[in-house]
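Worked example 2:
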Amino acid sequence: MSEAEQVPASAPEAAAAAVLDALNATDSNGTEALNATAKFVATPEGTALAYGSLVFMALLPIFFGALRSVTCSKSKELGENDYDSGFRNASDMPETITGRDAARFPIIASCTLFGLYLFFKVFSQEYINLLLSVYFFGLGVLALSHTMSPLMSRVFPESFPNKQYQLLFTQGSGESKEEIVNYEFDTKNLVCLLISSVVGVWYLLKKHWIANNLFGLAFALNGVELLHLNNVSTGCILLGGLFVYDVFWVFGTNVMVTVAKSFEAPIKLVFPQDLLEKGLEASNFAMLGLGDVVIPGIFIALLLRFDVSLKKNSRTYFYSSFLAYIFGLGLTIFVMHTFKHAQPALLYLVPACIGFPVIVALFKGELTEMFRYEEASAEEEGAKEESESEKKDQ
């Protein structure tokens, strides 16, 4: 939160990954503020409403994104590309984050953050944010369309004329012909895309906080759903690395705060503290960076998939980590509100989200089993299938 203010389309996975890079390169998981202006003093009611709304909005993409990640993972295991979440193409399948990726991510995020800081120092902030607005308009439309797709599939009656379409670009001819783009979609997808485009135009023209939050929630849900950690150890490496990254850039320098104040893009959830006084035209916001949602969210989603793999009809690890997230976020808000100082949210979220499930696993005697649980990447699964096919042929 900040003290000054602070997809389906052809590539929802790419949108989720790109947004994850961007949000970790700006305010990332840092929580920087309470009020949008130094003169504004929020009422206790307004503050409570803003904080409560931010916590609620943060929980939504984690909960539903985790549930959708289970369906997504099952589809990957079965080799299917078409299921309830609206996936139809290989490019829409989840991206698996390995231990190597997790170790490199804080370094890449730090370089990107410092690069943005230099850009804002050297070039005009107005033109940079114009480019960012156009870029995130495209990503936001794709992400929101992907988020809406399952709901639309249930809203439309069975009698709805749902025609199938295919967008195909190839290179070359004959045996050397190569597919560049092969995307299948239907009429329902087009309706989702149209609605998402209306929201996108609203955001471009007005930068309204509701439009910002619609895009932000879509980005977060896509990130939790489509970015899969391959095991718990990788999750600990990623969260631990970003824990250090977050603390350093918030407490050690003014780089993150500067970029967060300058960066205008829907990579944060905002809620006005003066809503009760000014209604929808309120302008003094409390803010939560999407990194504070997506980073713990993909770890919580992994634990839900681990629960499912145990086949015990219980969701112990998911609910324990989910409650840990609520506790960590609440503690962040409490410390920030008490000391009136920017707080890196991962300072509180990482120990809570890792510690609670580990303690539960120790009590249940499943700690070794939890750390042995592994999800193969698409490349590894493909290699495994080829190997099995070769053995059968022999």
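Residues 1-11, 25-38, 80-88 have pLDDT under 50 and may be disordered. Residues 44-78 form the longest helix (35 residues).
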